[in-house]
Amino acid sequence: MRKKNINKYNLSFKNLTGEKSLLLKSLNTIGIVFLINLFLFIMIFMGYIISVADDRVEYDVRANKLQLTSMIYVMDENGNFKEYNKAYSSENRIWVDFNNMPNYMKDAIIAIEDKRFYEHNGVDWIRTGGAILNLVVGNRSYGGSSITQQLIKNLTEENEVSITRKIKEIFRAINFEKNFSKDEILEAYLNVVNFGNGCRGVQTAANTYFNKDIKNCSIAECAAIAGITQNPTAYNPLLHPENNQERRETVLSEMLSQGKITQQEYNDAISESQNMIFLRGDDTTDLANIPIKNWYTEVLFNDIIDDLTAKYKISKASAQDILFKQGLKIYCAVDEKAQSIAETVIATDSLMPSDKNLELGYVMMDYDGRVLASIGSRSKKTGNMLFDRANYAKRQAGSCIKPISVYAPAIDIGLYNYASNVKDEPLPNFYGKGKPGPNNWYKSYKGQVPLVWAIQQSANAPAAQVLQELTYQKSFEFLTQKLGLKHLDAEDRTSGGALALGGLHGGVTVREMTAAFQIFGNGGFYNKPYTYFYVLDRNGKVLLDNRDKIGTRAINSQTATIMNRLLRQVIVAGTGKGADIENWEVVGKTGTTNDDKDSWFVGLTPQAVAGIWTGYDSPKRIRETAYAKRIWREIMVRYLNGKTLKTYNFDPNVKEYQYCLSSGKLAVDGACPDTATGYFANNSMPGFCTQHSNVANEDNSSILISEEDFAVNENNFSDYDANAGTQG
Ligand SMILES: [Zn+2]
After folding, report:
1. What is the pLDDT of residue 32?
2. 688 CA to middle of ligand 1, Å?
3. pLDDT band at 505 (very low <50, low <70, confident <90, very high)
4. Which among 66, 233, 428, 565 would be 20 to 30 A from 270, CA to CA?
């Protein structure tokens, strides 16, 4: 029959016209294409499964039991590491070993959460099938996770409900069970899972809800705790005692029906359950014995926790376990001398504003992002986990933002140079349609001012004009993508008040501002700030590493040099006067916000860059506004004392020339009446002044300096150099 058919086809083939044959051929081709696609699809799907399967949980539950204290080392003056401190946790978490855990507690959890726990290989397929089906039909509620899967969910805290996550979790659970025994997994579960009210683990839960140790809890109490985990809010016994009662009685009947308790035990437990009283226990007693960490150490811990969380995709709580219980070796980046100087200055009343509520945040860094010192408040640190104004307070930047939001990016793309003049006029729609602005502090508009003067005097209208030309978008992208100001938000993106004047909606931290200004001292590179060099686990494996980080270029090196010289003028003759330090060239920018609610100084020396903010926690007018600059200087002077003199590394392609103040072009010797020294990149020189001379007036837009002129100019410049400092 079959054969016959085939013959028939063969016959028909012979009789087909060319056209039809083509049709069949293409059908054939389509079939092949389909098969190839199917094959590719299967390959991709397999690849996907393998990639998901390979996503292990980088968390060693065994290490927690060891309760190993992590050590912090710091670098001494010779570059050798020495012991600095121990890493004490500010959270009280007591690990209870499997053998010290009451059997009722284990039985209660297994009975209610995963009755085949000791039989399956990490995944209860019967329940998982149902759960996946649930997801496929779009039901967001989902159950069916084994104890192992729930543990992994807690360790990684990936809460997204999706099939991908579900598949990932299944593979992780199976892998996990290859590495740890059932008892180890249950032990970890009972110690790390969320039992409501911020309780991690059953010991904390027993303390919190019954004011006793887990080993002294009754069957009914164990059932009450076990009942919480499925929904730590709804079954929280302090918030919803009636829900918890219903749930714990379900737990008890599961225990009974699975033979974990006798009928008599069940009856007793039920009657206890009906009269159960919850006592909010105090589990903070041990915390009193924890030494107070300095501001730096606390930031260090937070950075390590954040970095572990991000790198290993684990929950914050898991990262805390690793930090505080797993015997890490932390090579901290603090400069002990800088930190101690900063702490001393801030503790000296005579150097500080008289109003004790006037707060501050201070950060000092070197030019590769190493945080040398960090201070979160002006008050003496009397506890742990206090609010840190250097690293976490998001404040308005005020005029401090102008160099980074406006001038550096505008010079970098060639819109302006050192000698340029800038419009000093209001923009008609700066604050919205028909709302002109901004005002200058000198309450007038000069029509046109030299760019250097605008920076020096922190003029608002010129900054707004330059921003307008640069575009808001470029400014915003520069700040957020190149300089790491990660809190700026959608409102800031379209606000001239935010970008030109620093009236930010999202805000900036002192650490961020300091890091952003490093580009003016290191040739234009942004390095993310770091508080540790590297971190080893207890076996010596590198967990986190900042040693070989490479900075990213934010502006080109000529721009960095030119900006450095522009900001030097802020100190020489502008709002930063008084911050200068003998023998060291201070470069920087002041910043005040509307109504003097924030006062900033971010400044550079060839050794370090530092930023300081002063203000009130609830913003209000500051009367003592001079302190930011003053405290900054006091700390820096002491820090530089004894350091080898050093100068900035300027780009060799940036040269000093005299320029004409009125035309904003290179000065013509003897012709231009008012000149000053400017700094110009070889490849983007302004032409010669045509206002006072016709030396180069043919077409000075294309070129610049003939060799002859160049020589003349350099001569001028050396003449001038002899008088340096006498001109503004
Ligand atoms: Zn001139």
Report:
1. 76
2. 8
3. very high
4. 233
